[in-house]
Write a structure and sequence with these properties.
The chain is an alpha/beta fold. About 40% of the residues lie in helices and about 15% in strands. The strands form three sheets. The chain has a seven-stranded parallel beta sheet. It has a three-stranded parallel beta sheet with strand order 8-9-10, with helices on both faces. A three-stranded parallel beta sheet has the order 11-12-13, with helices on both faces. The longest helix is centred in the middle third of the chain and has 17 residues.
């Protein structure tokens, strides 16, 4: 691990909004990155804002100065705007791992922008949610001293839909934990060959079209489709769990949300990861699959291209037939061709390192703290 050099200004306090630490997405980002940044800034005292016992969400490095601060406040709420400034009053700066910054604070600020989906996907969110997002994104552009974008695509989308930020814009890619590269020697979690798709059922995740495509895949292939994601509230208004399973009866299975160990087990034994999203900021499951040695068939969209390069097979996310053809072509690769693709994918995944992300993020935090 590369440590940060000693800085002047020891004794600074950084507040970190950890309210989403248990979530997927932003939660994965926080759980992997925050402990590494804490290790790189041993002179900084960290205030971890979140639910009770928020510190249990992280593997806190030895010797780290930290204090949990109870902040069980709903995200995207008026309450967070009223209460968070009071909660961070003793801090010298704030890091928010999402765009929902407290607008009524003058603290130096680092904000991470994963995507601008609330602005880009105009048919997915209500007018009120889009208006709230526009207000907060405008505040991020105006108030943040440093911004982190998890891909160059997200940076370009921010410029297109929000505008030029006042603060310094850093593109710092998400990483892949070393555990995804480790060999797993166990039995498959299911008794049949399968492909896996990972993500909560939301309209832009495009799971409905994937299930339509699976009817075509299943006509010529033995593989089942295993969907992994949050099961409560597992519908978008246009599709339900029952509708998804009925698209190809007996060949589509929904597991619900899984912890990392069983998630990796499902990924390792899958014949492929299918990633059909219409819109992403990065697409972390694709890189995790490549690290695991699981081939990827994914949407031909800019952020996934940016993450996977030529190490994946791509399809049009709007066309179930093209999706089915691409998945089938991937599954029909012979042994040498599949091995070459797996080796290429592992090499690609090693370009995404949480340690490298932490080095750059800690430098940005040091600038915000004026260390």
């Amino acid at each position: 691990m590369i440590g940060c050099p000693a800085h002047k200004g020891a004794g600074k306090t950084l507040a970190v909004d950890c309210r989403m630490a248990k979530n997927s997405g932003v939660g994965v980002y926080l759980r992997n990155l925050l402990p590494l940044c804490m290790a790189r800034l041993p002179e900084v005292r960290f205030l971890l804002l979140g639910p009770r016992a928020v510190e249990e969400c992280f593997v806190i490095p030895a010797g780290t100065q930290f204090e949990p601060v109870a902040a069980n406040i709903p995200i995207y709420s008026v309450k967070e705007q009223l209460v968070l400034p009071w909660k961070i009053a003793q801090a010298d700066a704030l890091w928010t791992p999402h765009y929902n910054i407290p607008v009524f604070t003058g603290k130096p600020l680092l904000a991470t922008v994963h995507d601008v989906a609330h602005l880009a996907l105009t048919t997915l969110y209500s007018g009120l949610k889009r208006a709230y997002a526009r207000t907060l994104f405008a505040a991020v552009a105006r108030k943040a001293d440093e911004l982190i974008f998890v891909s160059d695509f997200s940076r370009r989308e921010f410029l297109r839909l929000v505008g030029q930020p006042r603060g310094r814009a850093n593109v710092i890619l998400n990483g892949v934990s070393q555990t995804w590269f480790e060999e797993i020697h166990d039995e498959s979690p299911v008794p049949f060959p399968y492909c896996v798709a990972i993500g909560n059922i939301k309209e832009h995740k495009n799971i409905r079209r994937l299930c339509q495509a699976w009817r075509l895949v299943a006509a010529t292939r033995p593989e089942h489709l295993v969907l992994i994601g949050k099961k409560s509230g597992f519908s978008t208004g246009e599709v339900s769990v029952q509708d998804l399973e009925a698209a190809c009866p007996g060949r589509i299975h929904i597991t619900g949300l899984l912890d990392e160990a069983p998630l990796r087990r499902h990924m390792r034994h899958a014949q492929a990861l299918v990633f059909p999203s219409l819109y992403e900021g990065f697409g972390l499951p694709t890189i995790e699959a490549l690290a695991m040695g699981t081939p990827v068939a994914a949407s031909n969209i800019p952020p996934v291209r940016e993450a996977c390069g030529e190490s994946a097979f791509y399809f049009s996310p709007q066309d179930p037939s093209d999706m089915a053809r691409t998945v089938t072509a991937l599954l029909e690769l012979d042994g040498p061709a599949r091995k070459a693709l797996v080796d290429q994918g592992r090499t690609r995944a090693r370009l995404c390192s949480w340690n490298e992300s932490a080095d750059k993020t800690a430098e940005a935090l040091a600038r915000v703290l004026a260390l």
